[in-house]
Structures are given as structure tokens and as C-alpha cells.
Amino acid sequence: MQTNTINQEKKNKERTKKNKLGKKRKEQFQLILTYIILTAWVVVVLIPVIFVILTAFKTDQEISLINFRWLPKSFTNIEAFRQAMQMGNWSRYFANSLFVTTIVVGGSLLFNSIGGFAFARLKFKGRDILFVMILTGLMISPQSVIIPQYMIMRMVPLVGGNNILGQGGTGLLDTYWSLIVPFMAGSFGVFLCKQFYSTFPRSLDDAAKIDGCGPIKTYVYIYVPLSKTILATLTIFKTVATWNDFFYPLIFTTSEKMKTVQLGLQMFKGSAATHYNWLMAATLISVIPTIIVYIFAQKYFVQGVVSSGMKN
């Protein structure tokens, strides 16, 4: 009897050991597979970036070589950068993009956070239906509503030569307003802020009411100071989207003085030939502002994305 018990214990130990070994091998396999997938993804993402950087330091002769070479002869050759900045009024392009991006981001932080706070913390009739209607904006392509937006911008009364009926002129087209007004708020920003504010305990609202704070004071003095993570996240998303926007400035603006950085990059595409080294040099310079914003805001970026998907 005792011998059988000992044998059974040995079998149980061996079985447990095999299970642990099998589990460990499975975890190692999953880890290796994860690393392979992530490495492949990083390579796919980095190859275009590396190509842009290397091409920016090449000469026209290197670009036109039949046998493609990845590396330029010299990384001190900045002729492409000099030539790129001499084409067009780049100080104006950067000023336009910087002004539009700053106003759009500032307005988005204000309106999206207010909207998110209202949907998450306030109770009013039709709140859920209205929120669902706003979320439908996430499922509609921006390109599909460009014509209605264009018509609205063109038919604004008493501006741009229009009469009181919105006819006879260009309205807000080819102005900063046409690049700012349609993007001051958005479905994604409201959704992100709403999810974030939904994680806050109700005790905050109760304490604010006891102290005599209404909804506005509660938002300003309690929720805004606690919103660094989500506002930093929204800042990154909105800055990148606005700064890199090519489609809307192309449709809404026509004059040289209203060109943004992305429209400025278009002029490197010639009918006969394209100076790819100049184009890549200008592209490198154009992404500097978004990189700077990310460096300052990335501390809160991941935390903001994660917290917006959590719920108490």
C-alpha cells in the first residue's frame, strides 16, 4: 500500500514537471513569435523612414544611378536641403501650418474635453442618443463629406464677397477659417475624453456639489487639472493629423499665401522630372514639429490611451 502511494506521488511529480515544462516551452514559443512579428512590423515601418533620410543626403547624380545604392557617398552633403528651402516661400508655409495647427489643437482640447465631460458626468435628456449620433462620425470617411463642407464654407453670408444669402463670393474659402472651423471638434476626441472621464469616481462630483460647485466649476477646477494624460494624447493625435493634412488645404485653399507645408511639398513633383533628394530633404524638415510635440507629450501618451479604455 505504501509502495503504491510512493509510486503515485512520483507519477504526480513527473506529470507536474512535464506540465510546467510544456507551459514554459509554450510561453517561450509565444514570446519568440511575438518578437518575430514585432520585428517584422518595425522593419516595415522603418524602411520608408530610412529611405527618406538616406535619399535626402544624395546628389542628383546618385539619384539617377541605374544601380540603386542605399547609402549616399557623404552624410555631410546638405545641398538638397539648401535647394529645397530655396524653392517656394517656406517661411510662409510653416507659419500657415503652425498657426492652423495651434488653433485647431487648442480648440479641440477645449471643445472635445467639454463634450467628453458632459457625456460622461452630466445627465440630460437624449444624452445617449446624441452620443451615438456623434459616434457615427467615426464611421464616415472625411472624403465623403468634403462636398457639403465645401458648400457650407462657400455660402457663409456676408464674408468673402457674399451677400446676406451667401451668394456672389467665395465665403470662407481660401482663408484660415476654412482650415480651422471644420476641425475644432471631432467624434474621436469626444469619445476619447468621454471614456477617460467615465473612469473617475462619482465621489468627485458629490464633493464638488457639497462645496457649491456647478458643472462649469467642477469641470474647470477638478477635471481639467486631472486631464493631463488624455489632453496630451489628444494633442499628439490632433497635431499629427492637422499638420500632415494635405486633402483639405488642397480643396479649401487656392492662393500661394494660404499654402501649408504639405501643399509646399507638392511643388517638387515636376512634369518632366522629380528631384527626389530635394523632396526627401523637405519632408525631413517638415516632420520636425510633430516630433517635437511627441517628445514633450509622449510621457502621458500611452497612459492616456490605456486609461481611456478603462472603466470603474
Automatic annotation (TrEMBL):
<dbReference type="GO" id="GO:0055085">
    <property type="term" value="P:transmembrane transport"/>
</dbReference>
<feature type="transmembrane region" description="Helical">
    <location>
        <begin position="175"/>
        <end position="193"/>
    </location>
</feature>
<dbReference type="InterPro" id="IPR035906">
    <property type="entry name" value="MetI-like_sf"/>
</dbReference>
<feature type="domain" description="ABC transmembrane type-1">
    <location>
        <begin position="94"/>
        <end position="297"/>
    </location>
</feature>
<keyword id="KW-1133">Transmembrane helix</keyword>
<comment type="similarity">
    <text>Belongs to the binding-protein-dependent transport system permease family.</text>
</comment>
<keyword id="KW-0472">Membrane</keyword>
<feature type="transmembrane region" description="Helical">
    <location>
        <begin position="276"/>
        <end position="297"/>
    </location>
</feature>
<feature type="transmembrane region" description="Helical">
    <location>
        <begin position="93"/>
        <end position="117"/>
    </location>
</feature>
<dbReference type="GO" id="GO:0005886">
    <property type="term" value="C:plasma membrane"/>
</dbReference>
<feature type="transmembrane region" description="Helical">
    <location>
        <begin position="129"/>
        <end position="152"/>
    </location>
</feature>
<feature type="transmembrane region" description="Helical">
    <location>
        <begin position="32"/>
        <end position="57"/>
    </location>
</feature>
<dbReference type="InterPro" id="IPR000515">
    <property type="entry name" value="MetI-like"/>
</dbReference>
<keyword id="KW-0812">Transmembrane</keyword>
<feature type="region of interest" description="Disordered">
    <location>
        <begin position="1"/>
        <end position="21"/>
    </location>
</feature>
<protein>
    <submittedName>
        <fullName>Carbohydrate ABC transporter permease</fullName>
    </submittedName>
</protein>
<keyword id="KW-0813">Transport</keyword>
<keyword id="KW-1003">Cell membrane</keyword>
<dbReference type="Pfam" id="PF00528">
    <property type="entry name" value="BPD_transp_1"/>
</dbReference>
